[in-house]
Amino acid sequence: MKRSIMHIKTIATLAIFLSGFGYAMAEPVLSPDMAVREEIYPFATQTLSDEQFLTGTSGKAEQIGGILSLPQGKGPFPAVVLMHGSSGVGANIEPWVRQLNGKGIATFTIDSLTGRGYKQLGDKQAALGRLNYIADIYGALDILAHHSSIDPKRIGLLGFSRGGQAALYASMTRFNNLWNKSGARFATYVPFYPNCVSVYKDDDKLEAGPVRIFHGGADDYNPAGVCEDYTQRLKKAGVDIEMTVYPEGEHGFDVPTLFGKSLQSKTAQTARNCKIREAENGILMNLDTSAPFTYEDQCVVLGPHVGGNAAAAEAAYSAVLAHFVKTFELN
Q1: Is 297 a domain residue?
Q2: Is residue 212 located within the same domain as residue 321?
Q3: Positive or negative: CA dihedral 88, 94, 96, 101
Q4: Do 151 and 72 belong together in one domain?
Q5: Contact, 233 vs 168, CB < 8 A?
Q6: Domain enclosing residue 24, as ranges
Q7: Mind listing the pLDDT tens digit of every residue in the chain (331 residues)?
Q8: Are 1 and 150 members of one domain?
Q9: 276 CB contacts (<8 Å, ≥6 apart)?
Q10: Is 244 inside any structural domain?
Q11: Residue 298 CB neighbour total at 10 angstroms
Q12: Is 182 inside any structural domain?
């Protein structure tokens, strides 16, 4: 009895001691959205100009990395590849990882910049081809498609900004035929606030997986209107595509560290005013100048805004998670 009383006193004293350092003993350490395991993968890819990507020409060999987060439960699991934007892996990625893991969905977060020696591309968009992320995405798909804990028929793609553009055009059958060597195809494509100003050959011929675009009506980085036009064009071609626009949402509306803020990225480049079309031999032409597009063109401007919107983010979380649950046929 004395030992039991002493033991209880010791536990009580320890709890009081730890509470003084901000530890709450009553709160569970394990939560349903916590990954049970994380695996870090370096993988081979290439640095490609848009011309090289569009013509299927080899570029510079590179090695980048990604983190696979496995959820609690028993696999094989469905999975979602997450593709960041020009700023790299930012504050919006972890909330998506945790929520997807909480639904029993594994995630693979790509880091396309660090391995190439970049921290961000906002003020130097020409440093990496706009379509290069797609090659990285297919590399991640190859890892997942051959992983014993992943169901290769239930892999989705979720991308943001530049990564949203990649998530959108990774759905093109032509690009899959050129660069996707995984033997698998994505079950669905979910781009967030992508750039849709470029018109590519056969960009209305997509893989079977549904496309669901989420955008902000107040986005002056990648305006939503151009993507709405593209969505309507694809619908007429029979593509399973839908677009949701949150009227108050700015670029990066799901970034929690930006909630309630609207910040001007004074040095960031945006091609929002450009009209670009693929011509012969993979050359992207500026339709206003009838010359190859460059980031020195007058249509490229500086100073777009980024801003978070909690209401839009919560609505997007709900819609996207429901879409993945339905697509992956989860309970």
Answers
A1: no
A2: yes
A3: positive
A4: yes
A5: no
A6: 1-30
A7: 444 433 434 334 434 434 444 545 456 788 999 999 999 999 999 999 999 999 999 999 999 999 999 999 999 999 999 999 999 999 999 999 999 999 999 999 999 999 999 999 999 999 999 999 999 999 999 999 999 999 999 999 999 999 999 999 999 999 999 999 999 999 999 999 999 999 999 999 999 999 999 999 999 999 999 999 999 999 999 999 999 999 999 999 999 999 999 999 999 999 999 999 999 999 999 999 999 999 999 999 999 999 999 999 999 999 999 999 999 999 7
A8: no
A9: 197, 198, 199, 284, 285, 286, 287, 293
A10: yes
A11: 10
A12: yes
CA dist 193 and 223 (Å) reads: 8
Q: Which of 132, 128, 136 is nearest to 109 (CA)?
A: 136
Tokens of 323: 């879409």
Tell me, what CATH number does 161's domain have? 3.40.50.1820
One domain, residues 113 and 43: yes
Q: Rounded distance, CA 28 to CA 310, Å?
A: 26
**Residue 9 domain-assigned (yes or no):** yes
Q: Answer yes or no: do 77 and 157 share one domain.
A: yes
59-97: buried (b, 16+ CB within 10 Å) or exposed (e) per residue? beebebebbbbbbbeeeebbbbbbbbbbbbbbebbeebb
- The encoded tokens of residue 160 equal 């943001």
Supply 18's token pair.
């730890």
What's the pTM value of the predicted model, to 2 decimals? 0.91
Buried b (16+ CB within 10 A) or exposed e, 221-255: bbbbebbeebbeebeeeebebebebbeebbbbbbb
Beta-bridged to residue 301, according to DSSP, are 270
